[in-house]
């Protein structure tokens, strides 16, 4: 089952549920967030809550995508209560890309990059037995709901950036219940837009390089994430595919379990505030930057994977380079 949000014919948010190829508007709810909060409050699982609502008119999500009427599959009514975060070095092969950016020539174990050390820690203890915590993954913060960009909208690289490039990922989407319990709503495709040139200068710039917009959706998979997810990431320039590569996700292609990644995020009380929404991106091993591609203004990124519905598409735009200082007003 897939959930999404669209702009209806009157310009209002509507929830869409898809089973197989058929998609229709869910009656009686004005947003996915409302649907989720109702399910939590009633003690129902999300699928049960969905089945308790009548299905309305059929919609063509592919056509709505072309018309620019797709929204994020879930949002919080107050963007400050939505958190975009992620983990890195979680996928088999992910260290190769990162290590190339921070490479040292030595092969001695004591001379490994911090990225490779972190990756090996995950290989060794990222998949503990049930009920036990494994090693912590790398973790980063991207912003709040103001950084969340709807499918079909532009991912903007600010004027102070050195670069901007795509990262195709799977994101877990969560809502915190009234008692502080995290509830996983589902999974969606995500574009974790980042500044890889800035990161390459020094790995301590990773935190800066991640403070960029991100997009996820358009559809959200309700239920378990398949053990093996195979998708395709494309970079389209002037209407033609400039670069294309498969990407893998799911636990069989990862050095951490989802449970371990979730534990090390939600172990913090800060991230268990009632009503908050979390979009937690699980990492990737595929990006065009690693193949020497520099994205330019107007490039379109398309991320698709079987079972996740309509592809995630976003145009990349780059603000004019600005080296000026940000002014702070003294009160």
Describe the structure.
By secondary structure, this protein is α+β, with helices and mostly antiparallel strands. Helices cover 19% and strands 32% of the residues. The chain is built from eight helices and 17 strands. It has helices at residues 32-42, 46-51, 61-66, 94-101, 114-125, 196-201, 206-210, 258-266, and strands at 2-7, 13-19, 22-26, 55-58, 70-71, 82-88, 138-144, 148-149, 155-157, 168-176, 182-191, 214-221, 229-237, 240-249, 277-281, 300-305, 312-318. Strands 1, 2, 3, 4, 5, 6, 7, 8, 10, 11, 12 and 15 form a twelve-stranded mixed beta sheet that branches. Strands 9-17-16-13-14 form a five-stranded mixed beta sheet, with no helix packed on it. Strand 13 (229-237) and strand 14 form a beta hairpin. The longest helix is centred in the middle third of the chain and has 12 residues, at 114-125. The radius of gyration is 20 Å and the shape is globular. The model has no long low-confidence stretch (mean pLDDT 92).
List the helices and strands and how they pair.
Blueprint: E1 2-7, E2 13-19, E3 22-26, H1 32-42, H2 46-51, E4 55-58, H3 61-66, E5 70-71, E6 82-88, H4 94-101, H5 114-125, E7 138-144, E8 148-149, E9 155-157, E10 168-176, E11 182-191, H6 196-201, H7 206-210, E12 214-221, E13 229-237, E14 240-249, H8 258-266, E15 277-281, E16 300-305, E17 312-318
Parallel strand pairs: 6-15, 8-12, 9-17
Antiparallel strand pairs: 1-2, 1-5, 1-12, 2-3, 3-4, 6-7, 10-11, 10-15, 11-12, 13-14, 13-16, 16-17
